[in-house]
Amino acid sequence: MAEVEHRAGIPRRTVARYGAAGAAGLGVRGARRRAGDGRRVAVLGAGVGGLTAAHELAERGFEVTVYERRAVPGGKARSQYVPHSGTGGRRDLPGEHGHRAVFGFYHNLPDTLRRVPRPGGGSVFDNLVPVTWIELARDGDRVNTPVPVRPWRPRLGDAGRLVRTLAGVLDEQFRLPVTEALFLAKQFVMLFTSCEERRFGQWEYVDWWHYIQADRMSLDYQLIWGNSVQLLQALRPSTASARTAGQGYAAVFNDLLGRGSDGPADRIFNGPTSEAWLDLWAAHLRHGLGVRFAHGCTVEHLEVRDGRIAWAGARARGGERVLIGADWFVVAVPAERAVRLWNPAVRAADPRLVAMDRLQYSWTNGAQFFLRRPAAVTPGHIVHVDSPWKLVSVNQSAFWRAPFARTWGDGEVGGSVSVDISDWDTPGILYGRPARKCTRAEVAREVWAQMQAHLNKGGRRVLDDAMLHSWWLDEDIVEGGGELRNEEPFLMNSTGSWDLRPEASTALANLFLAADYVRVHSNIDLASMECANEAGRRAAGAVLRAAGAHGVPDVPTFRGFEPPELAPLKAADRARWRRGLPHVLDTERRAAPSVAG
Asked: Where are the beta strands (DSSP E) in 50-187?
């Protein structure tokens, strides 16, 4: 072991502490063999950001090993299977952390999907299915509004749905006062025509609820336009910055008009996420690009020497401590886990990482309901507007290619509905408690009841108790101590959080970051697969530059669409900003903006 220790730059006492066998098995022996070639990369975390970084670097000739604490790749995007639920040769019932959506304003992620081959020809991108309807569902006697989205093509069977569309639009129109509609339109135009300096220097520090002045508006205004950032973007209206929320709305509006889109406005995979994408991606990385995977490996420590990461300490599934040696380290774990790696030496080397301690988190987790027969609901995403737990559901199995009953479960399940739960702090309608104060079973019953309140109308039992076979709640929601615990919280883009987020490069010469908390520079800045993908690309590009890799293509990142006709208005606003003047439409403030941060 002496030669291994010397060549890898790891002292004997450290090898003794962590275990020589584990060290050799997870990279130190390879480090001795290839010391000095400058091409070895350790990617710590196999979520979308980590896999993206591994993909880009392996394509450019780097030797990449991905270390992941779970037994499967994908992070929050992975599918979760109900143990022992498959019989007769069928696979276990598939659950999800939440339902997946690949929007038309995504550009980085689709580019990656097109480069992952699919058995039999084509790419994983071909496993995306357009969603042509969304529905705004209301409880009580309110009208539900189905809305067609690109690339919708009218069919005879859509006639009844279009009648409900018009009825819903008229219902909402007459309930929302004209003065409120005009005010909201002004606030949107003000955001869309603000220069970049104002967006980051002013609107980043104003929360969405106050920006649209929801407190003084009607209940419908609050439910639809205040809470919609939580329903559509998993943000909290009272804490999300107007910059982030407005950026998301702008992307959606342009996408619905087909401007700057990479395909249909809304798409989901034609099967469970792991089967339709992540497993194929990992197989391509492993067999096509030579990426190694070390699953069941939890990184615990980063050792700093002379302004670099000398090695990483990890723990294997059986508890054995192991060492990770590499030339370049890419941390691709979620923010709440990354900050645990920022020990005093790391923080001293890059004080900017200390700011991450102040990032905030929310819960956005999924539940799946397995049905004996397919649900007769709108074939697309359903926004349950009045649900206290801010539910968005999708009849996902209606888009899946394989026949459900013959492929998954016990043969009695004919379909599944996937639901995202974005509010775990508001009391529900069954138990009068917030989701985090319920048991897992109570959460499932409460979600089912809230969906029924929005969909079972006019004597129609769209979701009947008799059709419910079983349910699955995200395995990261854990019971214990009288309150649920979430092992995979969701990064929350709160006011001023841009100042707390790092770039993909750090002050340590060989440490890079690839997760959705990294600053991204496209026109969508939400914790999402798209942002994680862009972060992975930025980390890979930074590794190329640090390694002095010549003669290889740069790692591209894609900017979203900016309407060219708004450029003159943004230029005029930039001139006002530089003179300390508010936006021309800012009739409520009319004071020089404070340039924060």
From this structure: 63-68, 79-81, 94-96, 102-103, 128-130, 133-137, 145-148
Tens digits of per-residue pLDDT, 78-100? Answer: 999 999 999 999 999 999 987 78
* Alpha-carbon Rg for the chain in angstroms: 25
Tokens linked to 444:
């499932």
> In CATH, which of 3.40.190.10, 3.30.70.260, 3.50.50.60, 1.10.1670.10 is domain 2-69+296-358+500-547?
3.50.50.60
477-493 pLDDT, tens digit per residue, is 999 888 999 999 989 88
pTM: 0.91
400-433 residue pLDDT tens:
999 999 999 999 999 999 999 999 999 999 999 9
What residue ranges do the domains of the chain occupy?
2-69+296-358+500-547, 76-133+266-271+364-486, 179-257+572-578
Answer whether residue 281 shows pLDDT above 90: yes
What CA–CA distances, in Å, run from 324 to 72, 319, 509?
20, 15, 17
Residue type, 378: T
Instruction: Summarize pLDDT for 166-217 with one digit per residue, the tens.
Output: 665 656 655 778 888 889 899 999 999 999 999 999 999 999 999 999 999 9
Helix (H, G, I), strand (E, B) or coil at 408: strand
Query: How far is Cα of residue 307 from the mean position of the Cα atoms in its chain?
Result: 32
The CA-atom distances, in angstroms, between 378 and each of 164, 395, 457 are 11, 8, 14
| CA–CA–CA angle 389, 393, 399 (5° rounding) | 170
Tokens of 331: 């941390």
Q: Find the DSSP H helices in 257-302.
A: 273, 279-283
Mapping DSSP onto H, E and C, the string for 5-43 reads HHHHCCCHHHHHHHCHHHHHHCCHHHHHHHCCCCCEEEE
For residue 384, give the H/E element and its range: strand 380-384
Nearest by Cα to 390 from 361, 362, 422, 419? 422
Using CA atoms, how far apart are residues 457 and 439, in angstroms rounded to an integer? 28
